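User: Okay, second chain of the day. Same drill as before: sequence in, C-alpha cells out.
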Amino acid sequence: MVRKVLQQLKQYKRDTFLCIGLTALEVIMEILLPFVTSIIIDKGLEAGNLGAVYRYGALMVGMSFLSLIFGALAGKNAASAASGLSANLRESIYANIQKFSFSNIDKFSVPSLVTRMTTDITNVQNAYMMIIRVAVRAPMNLIFSFAMCMIISPHLSSMFLIAVVFLVIVIGSIMVVTLKIFNQVFRRYDGLNASVQENISAIRVVKAFVREDFENVKFDKASKMLYKLSVKAEGLLAFNNPAMMVAVYFCIISVSWFGAQFIVGGTMTTGDLTSLFSYIMSLLMSLMMLSMVVVMISMSMASIRRIGEVLSEQPDLTDPADPVLAVNDGSIDFNHVNFSYKHGNGKYALNDIDLHIKSGETIGVIGGTGSGKSSLVNLICRLYDVDEGSVCVGGVDVRKYDTEVLRNQVSVVLQKNTLFSGTILDNLRWGNPNATEEECIKACRDACADEFIERMPDGYQTRIERGGANVSGGQKQRLCIARALLKKPKILILDDSTSAVDTATDASIRAAFAKEIPGTTKIIIAQRVSSVESADRILVLDDGRINAFDTHENLLKDNAIYQEIYNSQIQGGGDFDQPA
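Assistant: Same drill. C-alpha cells below.
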C-alpha cells in the first residue's frame, strides 16, 4: 500500500530529494557549531587569545547563516513535495472512482470515499512532510551527535545508549497499541460522515417529520464514540513526553556527575563538557522528534491503507481488447439472464429473463416494488454485468462494446433525477455538449419543459442550484428527459421518470416521443397504468421474473397481476388529476 501511494509522487520526486539533501547540509552545520564553541572556550577564552575568539566566532556566524538558508530551502521543498503528493493522490483517486461501476461504489460507500479523499489524504500529506523533513533530520542529528560524543568522551557516551534503549521500548509499545486504535477511528469517521450526509441531504424530510431530536441523538452517539477513541489514542501518546523527560534528566545528571570528576582528574576540558551538553540536548531532541514521527506514521498508516484500497480497486466493468465501436440499431435481447448485485451469492434480483424487443418499439414495464424493473434496464446500458446469460443491444453482447459508445446510444432517465449547479442550458448540454440553443429548446418542447422555463425571469439562462433545489420534482424530471433526448439515442429508458408530472403532461411527453423519435426504442417504467397502456407491448415483472409480456388489451383479459394493478387504480379514483 505504501508503494502504491508513493508512486503518486511523480514530478515531485525532485523536490523530495532536494529536501533530503538540504536537510543533511543543515544538520552538518548544526553539528559542527558545538565543536567550534568548545574550541573558542579552550583556545580562546581560557587561553586569553581574542584573535582565536574573533576567527572562530566569525566562522560560527557563517555556519549559522548557512544552516538557516539550508533549513528554509529544505522546508520549501518539503511543502512542495507533500502538497504535490496529496494533489496527485486526490486526482488519481477521483480518476479511478470515475471508472468504478455501481458495484465498486457500493463496496466503499460514498461517505467512506469522501473521508478517504479529505481526512485520509490530509493525514498522509502531513506525515510525508514530517518524514522527509524531520525523519531525515532527526536520525542524522542523532547519529552525528552520538559520533561527536564518542570523539569527546567514549565513557560518557554509554549513558546515551541506556536512554535510547529505554525510549525505543516505550515508544514502540505505544505505537503498536495506537495503530489499532487509529484504524477504528477512521472507520468511525466514515460513520460520522454518513450521518451528516444523510441528514443534510434529507433535511426537508427530517423537518417535516419533526425528527431533529432523533437525528441529534444519532449524530451525538457517533461523535461521542469518535471522541472516546481519540481520547484513548491521545492518552497513550501523552506518555511520550514523560518518557522523553526521564531520558533527558537521566543523561544530564549522569554527564554532570561523571563529567565534573573527569575535569577534576584532568581527562576532560571545560570546552569539551560544554559541547557535550549541547550534543546531549541535540541527541535527545532528535529522539523526541523521532517519537513525533512515529506517532504521525502510526496515524497515517491507517490512512495509507484506506487510500491504497481505492487506488488498487479494479473496476468490475472493463472494455474488451477489440471493442465494437458502433451500435447498429435499438433492438434489445435478454437471453436467459440471471443477475445479482453481489455475484456468486445465489440471491438473484432477476431470474431467467428471456426477452426480445424490436428496434423502435415502445415497451412499458410494470410491477410491484422490488420486482426488478430498475435492475432490468440497468443491464441494457451495462451499469452492471449479468451473472449468467447475455444482454444484446443491436444484436451485439453489451460486454463487447466500448462502454462509452454503448452509453452514448442509450439514454437513461433514472428514478433519482440529478441536476448540477449551473444554468438550465449547462444542464441540458450534459446530453450533448455541442447542442445549439435551438436544439435545447426543441428537446425541452418535446419534454414539455418549455412552458415553465419560459416563465422563469432568465429563461434558459436561469441558474439551477446544486441538486436542482430551486425547481420542483416534476420540473426536474422534465429537464432530465430533455437532457436525455439531446443525446439522440437509439434507446431511451424512462425509469419511473414521469411520476411527478400530471397525466396530461405525461401523455403529451409520450405523444412527442412517438412523433419526434419514432425510430428510437423506448422503455417506460411506470407505476401507473395510464403511462404504459399505449405502449406496443407491456412487460409485467414479479419477484425478478417475467410474469407476462403482451399488449394492454390482452393483459387486461388474461393477466391477474396486471388486472389487479389496473383495477386498484381505477377503483381508487384513477390518477390524482384524472377523474375515475
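Confidence is low (pLDDT under 50) at residues 575-580.

User: Thanks, on to the next one.
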